[in-house]
Amino acid sequence: LAVHIQTSRALMVISLLLGFFGIIVSVVGMKCTKVGEEDPVTKSRIAVAGGVLFILSGLCTLAAVSLYAAQVTYEFFRESTVPINARYEFGSALFVGWGAASLTVLGGSLLCCSCPAKERRGQQYYRQSQPSTAREYV
């Protein structure tokens, strides 16, 4: 096979592996699971690590699909003896790949937003009820 196809294939395999490990790390980092540490700061850092893996996976997918699209564009406009009706064109798989890469990067970015702010790290929040003197009686 051509070099660009082999490169795209390798990038997609790397993307799949990063996405798989991103799923596992993100599930461990979710606040609703009992796996791993019970500290919420540690759990959120694990979730951020999963988000980074998802972003890397999306970027690998984007690079693979864009590399293949660039090669198709180059071959289409190159002067050759191949008739126009026998040349490759963009197919729906390229658009699905671009959409999947975009959604994967968006999901990873949302996971990265779960990192607690520096001023909130050591604080615990408790729900306070209203004192009985604050109630109005009619």
TrEMBL record:
The chain crosses the membrane at residues 12-33, 45-70, 90-113. Keywords: Cell junction, Cell membrane, Membrane, Tight junction, Transmembrane, Transmembrane helix. GO terms for cellular component: bicellular tight junction; plasma membrane. It is found in: Cell junction, Tight junction; Cell membrane. It is a multi-pass membrane protein. InterPro entries: Claudin, PMP22/EMP/MP20/Claudin. One of its GO terms (molecular function) is structural molecule activity. Its main location: other. Belongs to the claudin family. This is Claudin-19. It comes from Spheniscus mendiculus.
